[in-house]
Design a protein that fits this description.
Mean pLDDT: 89
Oligomer: single chain
Number of strands: 8
Helix content: 10-25%
Number of domains: 1
Largest sheet: 8 strands, antiparallel, barrel
């Protein structure tokens, strides 16, 4: 009877180790908590640059389904000027009401190789979700994946108003640049 219990325990241990190794080997999830998004709404030729950078962006990429999720906390965007950062958070993006921006979508036709791919999905900023489609560069490393790209949004599409007094400094569009260095989860 005692030998049967030991055999059962060995079977359970082997099964557990097999599941643990299998989930690690076949895991396709990659992630980061230190991605970077740059928000540039500078009017061409303006003296003041309206550029905010967030270096604490979280992202998960599921290689097998090609699904990607990106999340940025709005208050983590840093600007050259404290006043500009305050206006960004309080007057334009209203970060107390809308604390994060998200993107949920897919890297289309991703085949596991380094190259240029289209990304399509829903971008949610300021409580408004819109479809976005753009190209990204994907660089595969041994246990790392770098994704970078940029696209332009129209601020009014996301119900972000540009006051008349700010039109000489704050553009009606913003270039969003993203850099993600993802690692196996």
């Amino acid at each position: 009877m005692f030998n049967n219990k030991i055999k059962d325990m060995k079977k359970i241990a082997v099964l557990f180790v097999g599941l643990l190794i299998g989930s690690t080997v076949f895991s396709q999830k990659m992630m980061t908590r230190s991605g970077e998004i740059k928000f540039d709404a500078t009017v061409p030729g303006a003296m003041d640059e309206v550029i905010g950078t967030n270096k604490t962006v979280s992202s998960i990429f599921e290689k097998s389904t090609r699904e990607i999720v990106v999340q940025a906390m709005i208050k983590s965007f840093k600007f050259k000027s404290n006043l500009m950062q305050e206006h960004f958070n309080e007057n334009y993006i209203e970060s107390d009401t809308f604390p994060k921006a998200t993107f949920k979508g897919k890297v289309l036709n991703y085949d596991g190789k380094t190259g240029s791919y289209e990304v399509e999905g829903d971008l949610n900023i300021h409580g408004v979700s819109k479809k976005v489609k753009t190209k990204v560069s994907v660089i595969n490393g041994e246990s790392k994946l770098d994704i970078s790209g940029s696209f332009t949004i129209k601020l009014s599409d996301y119900k972000i108003d540009v006051p008349a007094l700010a039109k000489n400094t704050l553009a009606e569009t913003a270039k969003i640049s993203i850099k993600l260095s993802l690692e196996n989860k």
